[in-house]
């Protein structure tokens, strides 16, 4: 399980770093901020919000993604946890559920904005499978780290 937790963190932490890059206004790997918004967030994003609001929202997302990489490592004991065992367990259960639900919802067009391209294609080809994989990895870590 150590390898799986390390892989999970190794996937999540660069994604958190990419969000930090976006927070500071760099649209890489896209050509423009508009391309970034259409490809990653869909057209439903409010393009009229100010830089400060975009910055804060994106930094919060980056922090949440970075923290999501910590929980599996704490659960298997690679990193010390500031939480008790029970709280850590339930945080990882919550994270697992969020990943699995978010990944599954990527295949359902619940809102009209989710049908726009290129977000819809990116979501179905890349984002949702990756997020489901992360959820399954967290589930496996939970299952196999629980002492019987």
Question: What does this entry look like structurally?
Answer:
With 148 residues, the protein is mainly α. It has one domain (2-145). Helices cover 70% and strands 0% of the residues. α1 packs antiparallel against α3 and α2 (33-41) crosses α5 (119-145).
Task: Summarize the topology.
Elements: H1 2-23, H2 33-41, H3 51-75, H4 85-105, H5 119-145
Order of helices and strands: HHHHH
In total, the number of domains comes to: 1
Gap between N and C termini, in Å?
A: 16 Å
* Helix content class: over 70%
Low-confidence stretches: none
Radius of gyration: 16 Å
| Count, helices | 5
Give a quick summary of the entry.
By secondary structure, this protein is mainly α. The protein is built from five helices and no strands. Helix 2 crosses helix 5.
Offer a few descriptive terms:
148 residues; mainly alpha
């Amino acid at each position: 399980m150590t390898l799986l937790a390390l892989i999970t963190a190794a996937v999540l932490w660069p994604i958190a770093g990419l969000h930090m890059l976006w927070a500071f206004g760099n649209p890489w790997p896209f050509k423009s901020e508009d391309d970034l918004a259409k490809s990653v967030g869909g057209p439903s994003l409010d393009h009229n919000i100010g830089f400060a609001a975009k910055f804060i929202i994106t930094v919060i997302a980056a922090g949440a993604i970075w923290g999501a990489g910590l929980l599996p490592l704490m659960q298997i004991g690679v990193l010390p946890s500031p939480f008790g065992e029970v709280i850590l367990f339930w945080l990882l259960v919550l994270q697992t559920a969020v990943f699995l639900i978010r990944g599954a919802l990527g295949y359902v067009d619940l809102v009209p904005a989710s049908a726009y391209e290129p977000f819809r294609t990116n979501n179905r080809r890349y984002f949702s499978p990756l997020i489901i994989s992360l959820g399954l990895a967290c589930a496996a870590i939970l299952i196999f780290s629980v002492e019987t």
